[in-house]
Amino acid sequence: MEVDARGLRCPLPIIRLAAVAKLAVPGTVVTVLSTDPAAEPDIAAWCRMRDAELVDQEWTADESGRYLRSAVKVSRRG
Predict the structure, then answer these.
(1) Neighbour tally for 75: CB within 10 Å
(2) CA dihedral 27, 31, 36, 39 (to 10 degrees)
(3) Pick from 29, 31, 33: which is nearest to 5 by CA?
(4) What are phi and psi of 75, to 5 degrees?
(5) For residue 76, what pLDDT is reported?
(6) Is 78 within a domain?
């Protein structure tokens, strides 16, 4: 599953991640794409609060610009 939150500011990337995670089966990896620098610590904090695993988090770039790619493994719904 993927959440494309590029161009959205805090708290929208987290709100979108939470909405997708609520629908996901435990064990699903959700990839979040974001251009907001606040998303990096926010996603890590959300994982700690929701007992989810932050699998990977890295800044990358393509023709559209620089963005954060975060992989989150959902461990429970909600």
Answers:
(1) 14
(2) 10
(3) 33
(4) -105, -15
(5) 72
(6) no
Residue position matching structure tokens 């959700």: 30
What is the residue range of 32's domain? 2-73
Return the bridge partners of 58, or none.
69
pLDDT at 33 over 90: yes
Residue 17 falls within a domain, yes or no? yes
Number of domains the chain contains: 1
Has residue 21 been placed in a domain? yes
User: In this structure, what CATH number is given to the domain that contains residue 32?
Assistant: 3.30.110.40
Give the pair of three-digit tokens for residue 49: 């609060």
The Cα-based distances of 21 to 13, 60, 65, 67 in angstroms read 12, 23, 26, 21
d(CA 33, CA 59): 9
Total-model pTM: 0.93
